[in-house]
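Hello,

Following up on my earlier ticket. Below are the two sequence lines again, exactly as submitted.
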Amino acid sequence: MQDPPITGPDDDPPASPADALAIIEQEQARQEPDVGPYFLLWGVAWALMGGAWFGAHQGLWSAGTAGITTGLLVVVGIGTSAFMGTRIGRGVSGPSSTFGAMYGIGWLIAMIGTGALGGALVATTGPAGGNLIPALFVFVVGVLYTATGAFHRSTFDYVLGIVVQVIAVVTAFTPVPWNSLVMGIGGGGALIVAGLLSRRAR
Amino acid sequence: MTELDPVIHAQARLRVTASLAALSDGDRMTFPRLQELLAMTAGNLSTHLRKLEDAGYVAITKTHQRRTPVTYVELTRAGRRAFEDYTAALRTLLAPQPGTEVGS
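Thanks for your patience. The regenerated structure is below:
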């Protein structure tokens, strides 16, 4: 296989200080993790989950079908996210890869924990409490985005987290079956918009 | 006139240094990943890394992951410092010089 072409004359200095600065910015931007696909992936997943539950409440298909669809979407979403996470950090070793892995596992633990709390909610309050489970998940995701934004100094993630938390609270107070649509269209839509904005900014 | 570090002030080495400086403190990158990011040939990248290594700006570690040999590249403390100084010098050169500003 042939090597990729060498870009530019190697030993020549940049044409001007402005060019040198542009080279630095270009090289460093190349290493910014591309988080747009995560937002798009989960935005579509949320929209499909919301649609699945709304359809079940409308009698278009059974609650079991919606449940299986949700489970499959979550498993596929987590698997794809984990794969994308390893692609982003590939070839880099050191403290940030360790913390990156901890971050990913932290999300997984939070999601499993939220699912368990949802189960406890249904066990305590009966099936009606189950209507709060989507809001619970969305709220935890919003909190995690906000914390991520604060930690990584990203106003974008921070604001997105607050928007998602507001959508979670609105979902919780919206009657069935509309709560599924608020979660799917509102939450999923917010994530899709975030993904598109993030792609455009690159 | 602000002097620009001649070791860094060559396009290829500037790209290498900028890429490595984007890593967090203590992180290092494999040679193939760096080569992929910079789209340079292995020989070309090695040549420039050697110059940076000779200046004490880059540390190269050869190790094994399971049985596969892996070469890691990272900026040394001196390299990071030199890159920061270089960037600061660029910004000084680009800043409006006192006395050349048009008064408002």
